[in-house]
């Protein structure tokens, strides 16, 4: 099993208005969490804060997200497809907190076995370099080498909230594919996958961003990712392309950018 990080902070649901949600003219109720402890009747509005299992109000996210899990290899020639498992998809704030508010539903990152991974990606995107939506992209990443000095559960939660809340990029950037956390013997690594490496994709020549604009977009995302990780100014997140990593035979390809 992985080294256990310092005791995680209690993961209380954040106020709904801290996560951008899609406009919905027919969504009932307020985005403010309820503070009443009175028993709700059958016809009353119930948010996830009132009842994490039987809520009847949904505030849709901008995208549908899928959680994936990579189990540790058995050492018997397992291939990636056998190890990578789709866990669950959700498209609302309430569903996210319904998943993560029940302690025994999703195993905390700090309790995962070595060589395990969680991946949270937009629906329809597999967390693989070979996926058609990833093959021209790359990732920002940071390794936490002192595993006992950080609260990996709180950090991973914070990064997931930044992703589903669309806080890692601007609306028209169309870069963020997903986020991932790796559990390894000597470190935890959290990464953010992007659709490109700052260049126009095949078929987009003349339609997309210039190389300079693409680089600045990636740098902006890197800076936001660094903020989500709560890193110090002198701690650098690194960006590398998936193709470079594949050629290097490692996820530790030489960094193209730092932030």
UniProtKB/TrEMBL annotation:
Gene3D superfamilies: RNA Cap, Translation Initiation Factor Eif4e. Residues 27-36 have a biased composition (Low complexity). It comes from the Eukaryota. GO terms for biological process: regulation of translation. Keywords: Initiation factor, Protein biosynthesis, RNA-binding, Translation regulation. PROSITE patterns: IF4E. One of its GO terms (cellular component) is eukaryotic translation initiation factor 4F complex. Residues 1-43 are annotated as: Disordered. InterPro entries: TIF_eIF4e-like, TIF_eIF_4E, TIF_eIF_4E_CS. Belongs to the eukaryotic initiation factor 4E family. Recognizes and binds the 7-methylguanosine-containing mRNA cap during an early step in the initiation of protein synthesis and facilitates ribosome binding by inducing the unwinding of the mRNAs secondary structures. eIF4F is a multi-subunit complex, the composition of which varies with external and internal environmental conditions. It is composed of at least eIF4A, eIF4E and eIF4G. eIF4E is also known to interact with other partners. This is Translation initiation factor eIF 4e-like domain-containing protein. It comes from Clohesyomyces aquaticus.
């Amino acid at each position: 099993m992985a080294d256990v990080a310092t005791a995680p902070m209690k993961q209380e649901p954040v106020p709904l208005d801290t996560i951008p949600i899609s406009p919905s003219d027919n969504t009932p109720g307020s985005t403010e969490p309820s503070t009443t402890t009175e028993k709700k009747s059958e016809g009353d509005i119930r948010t996830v804060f009132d009842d994490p299992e039987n809520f009847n109000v949904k505030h849709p996210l901008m995208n549908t997200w899928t959680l994936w899990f990579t189990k540790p290899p058995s050492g018997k020639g397992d291939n990636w497809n056998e190890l990578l498992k789709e866990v669950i998809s959700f498209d609302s704030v309430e569903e996210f907190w319904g998943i993560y508010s029940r302690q025994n539903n999703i195993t905390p990152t700090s309790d995962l076995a070595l060589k395990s991974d969680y991946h949270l990606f937009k629906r329809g995107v597999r967390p693989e370099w070979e996926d058609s939506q990833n093959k021209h992209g790359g990732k920002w990443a940071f390794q936490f080498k002192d595993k006992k000095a950080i609260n990996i559960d709180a950090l991973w939660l914070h990064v997931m909230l930044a992703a589903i809340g669309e806080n890692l990029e601007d609306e028209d950037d169309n870069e963020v594919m997903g986020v991932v956390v790796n559990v390894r013997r000597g470190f935890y690594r959290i990464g953010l996958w992007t659709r490109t490496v700052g260049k126009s994709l095949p078929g987009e020549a003349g339609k997309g961003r210039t190389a300079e604009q693409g680089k600045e977009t990636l740098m902006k995302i890197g800076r936001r990712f660094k903020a989500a990780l709560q890193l110090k100014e002198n701690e650098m997140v690194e960006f590398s392309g998936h193709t470079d990593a594949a050629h290097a035979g490692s996820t530790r390809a030489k960094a193209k950018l730092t932030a």
